[in-house]
Design a protein that fits this description.
Oligomer: single chain
Radius of gyration: 32 Å
Order of helices and strands: HEEEEEHEEHHHH
Largest sheet: 5 strands, antiparallel
Shape: elongated
Helix content: 10-25%
Strand order of the largest sheet: 6-5-4-3-7
Structural class: alpha+beta
Strand content: 15-25%
Number of strands: 7
Distance between the termini: 84 Å
Length: 207
Amino acid sequence: MSSTKSASEAEHKTKKFGKGERKIPHHTQKAKKFYPAEPEAKPRKVRKSIRPARPRPSLQPGTVLILLAGRFRGKRVILLKHLPQGVLLVTGPFKINGVPLRRVNARYVIATSAKVELRGIDEKVVEKVGDEGYFTREKAQQKKGEDQFFSQGEKPEKKQVTSVRASDQKAVDKALLANIGKEAHLKEYLASSFSLRKGDRPHEMKW
């Protein structure tokens, strides 16, 4: 009883004003004098459980793919590895069709029946390229002050490929080019671009 009584006394205080009395609430129960202009952002509760991406059974390492979107759409590339981010690691090779090592969304590719052996490729290089921070862009140094003012209207500088990426590209393509050269007409097949013409029926084609 004593504990409940002390708690109630802490909550309210009575003060006499003239002939009457008034209960004054505790300072924790008083209304705030300041309210934020915008409601505080609360993170949404994700009800769906995050599941790992399941690649299609046709997307096996060494399969020749056709890109359907992006800068290199229509090009034929070779699948190297499934990355944990849910994307595919592919290469042209660069010497044949100009497609470098890059990540591709599995939804925007067509898997063909053609395959290339991945024998001789350094797995350490492939794992290095498949890291999450490998393809992050380096922040360009912005000019400040007078340099920025006088540089307006000039042509932007060309993007230079780092020596590390160039060496990784050569290391991967060296083994692939040796395997591609063993099969007849495979080099010409990878160099050609895919396109649909009037009257073509893609749903009836055998990939």
